[in-house]
Amino acid sequence: MRLLQHDDLRSLSHPKACDTAGMSVRAPAEADVVGDLDTLLHRYGLRADRVRRMPRADCEIWRISAGGQDLQWRIYAPDRHDIGAIHTELDWLQAAADDGLHVPRPQVDRDGLRLQRWQPAGQTGARHAVLLSWLPGRLLDRGLTAARLQQVGRLIGRLHRVAMHLHEAGLVRTQREAVTLDLKRWAAGTRPGSERLAVGHRQVLQAAAHRLLPLLEAPAPRCFIHGDLHPWNLLFQGREAGAIDFTDCGWGDPAMDLASTLQYLKLPLAGNHDHRAVYPALRDALFDGLAQERPLPAGLPQRVDLLITARLFLTLEWMLDDWPDLNHRAWGPGFLRGQEQALREGPQG
Question: What pLDDT does residue 59 have?
Answer without folding.
Answer: 80
